[in-house]
Amino acid sequence: MTDICVHGLGYIGLPTAAIFANSGFEVVGYDIDRDVVRSLQDGDIHFEEPGLDQFVNKAQKSGNLVVTTDVEPAETHIICVPTPFDTETKEANLDYVKSAGETVRDNLREDDLVILESTVPPETTEQVLQPILERSGFKAGEDFGLAHCPETVLPGNMINELRENDRIVGGITEKSTERAYQLYDSFVESDIHKASNPSTAEFAKLIQNTFRDTNIALANEIAILAHGYGIDSRESIDLANEHPRVNIHHPGPGVGGHCLPIDPWFLGHNSDDLNIISKSREINDGMTQYIIKLLQESLGTLSGKKISILGVAYKGNVGDIRQSPGLKLARELQLIQSDGQSQSPMEGTGVDIGIHDPHVSDQTLNLESLDMSISNSDVCVVTTDHDEFKELNPEKFNSLMNGNLIVDTKAILDQQWWENHGFDMIRI
Ligand code: SAJ
């Protein structure tokens, strides 16, 4: 008998299925994508995450994790499907949540528990998922349990974070909350906090990422201000953070990934009251234009120049390019025309761009080796703090680059060392 059926084997569903299986539960991992399921059955993980392949293989070898394209009845259904974001309307697309709900409904039995883990706008569990599930004829809270348990893992360190992070569980009844609590308690080593209801749990998850995004926006605004005053923003932020009640995050080329640039907008799904939150989004999104302004101040017109971009993953040591600032910078540079102004992409390009990222393997991006990407470039912009980039050697850049300008948006290079080799350094 299946204990748990995990719906969606992506970034969150797969590690979650594996950790439950490795904790002794009989788990079925279900995904509609046959290619994903086939490759998992062959032992291949379809995204980069340190240690995840061994972790999943261990779960599969034990017999506790079976991946399949067929849903089975299970005591607990955990929904981990994506909630895509519409960049135009700034709204969450809940189609996958709805269709996962329909699949669960078709397999639902009395006394089962349904948990939504996907990040969703407030009220989704109760207003969207619950009515779909109740079309089974069973009543939520009476005939079956229903809860929201948001995930909080940081890509790049998922397995440890699954165990070590605090969790929030919010059920539609105390019994639903308690059942979800007991389930996660099987592997969570930290505290599990009980929310009064699913909407409060949904809201708490969203404001965690919103706090981080807004804090980074503050750091980015500080960086812009400090640059204007000729002050090193990072030194001043580090000094400010010596105060026990101050914790300013780090500036950079903007905020990427599928969480921080999106979740704050989910708060506005049924509300018109976003203010500092939408302004923060604007500031973080504006960092690529700020970098272009810095480049123009140093180089004059950018048309005819070669710009090397190091890093199109959204952050260090991951291969994920979703909402990547490096890629956004490349695309905005491609819009620059011969007069150096941003124009329509249809009117040709004036900037030659060389992109290198040792963690990304996307065939559509024209990625180059490090040497190719920096060769003959006028400026090199470091946009991701991969470990490999921390070790970059200025001598190689001296011999291959045409110019001597480095924009280190993550402040990972040894400024003194590079300056000693004749480079002009701009740090964000
Ligand atoms: N970044 C900065 N400055 C900083 C920290 C981060 O510019 O001081 C940038 C990163 O370079 C990156 C972006 O922010 O582009 C997001 O990276 P991140 O490491 O802050 O977060 P994610 O998106 O990888 O994961 C976040 C985490 N949320 C929080 O820390 C509150 C993670 O715990 C969540 O599980 C995840 O979102 C999620 O799934 O919601």
CATH topology of the largest domain: Rossmann fold
Termini separation comes to 55 Å
Annotated CATH homologous superfamily of the largest domain: NAD(P)-binding Rossmann-like Domain
Broad structural category: alpha/beta
Helix content: 25-40%
Mean pLDDT: 95
Name the CATH architecture of the largest domain.
3-Layer(aba) Sandwich
Taking pLDDT < 50 over at least 5 consecutive residues as the criterion, the unreliable ranges are 344-348
Number of helical regions? 17
| Major β-sheet strand ordering | 3-2-1-4-7-8-9-10
Q: Could you tell me which ligands this complex binds, including any ions or cofactors?
A: ligand SAJ
Total strand segments? 15
Radius of gyration: 24 Å
| Share of residues in strands | 5-15%
User: What is the CATH C-level name of the largest domain?
Assistant: Alpha Beta
Name the shape in a single word. elongated
Number of domains: 2
For the largest beta-sheet, the strand count, sense and barrel status come to: 8 strands, mixed
Enzyme class: oxidoreductase
GO molecular function, one term: UDP-N-acetyl-D-mannosamine dehydrogenase activity
GO biological process, one term: polysaccharide biosynthetic process
Domain UDP-glucose/GDP-mannose dehydrogenase C-terminal: 308-415
Give an overview in words:
The structure is a single chain. With 428 residues, the chain is α/β, with parallel strands linked by helices. It has helices at residues 13-22, 34-41, 52-61, 95-107, 124-134, 158-164, 174-184, 198-229, 233-240, 263-266, 276-285, 287-299, 325-334, 370-374, 387-390, 394-400, 415-420, and strands at 4-7, 27-30, 65-68, 76-79, 85-86, 91-92, 113-116, 145-148, 167-171, 192-194, 306-310, 352-356, 379-382, 405-408, 424-427. The model is unreliable at 344-348 (pLDDT under 50). The site of ligand SAJ has 20 residues, from helix 8. Belongs to the UDP-glucose/GDP-mannose dehydrogenase family. It holds the Pfam family UDPG_MGDP_dh. GO terms for molecular function: NAD binding; oxidoreductase activity, acting on the CH-CH group of donors, NAD or NADP as acceptor; UDP-N-acetyl-D-mannosamine dehydrogenase activity.
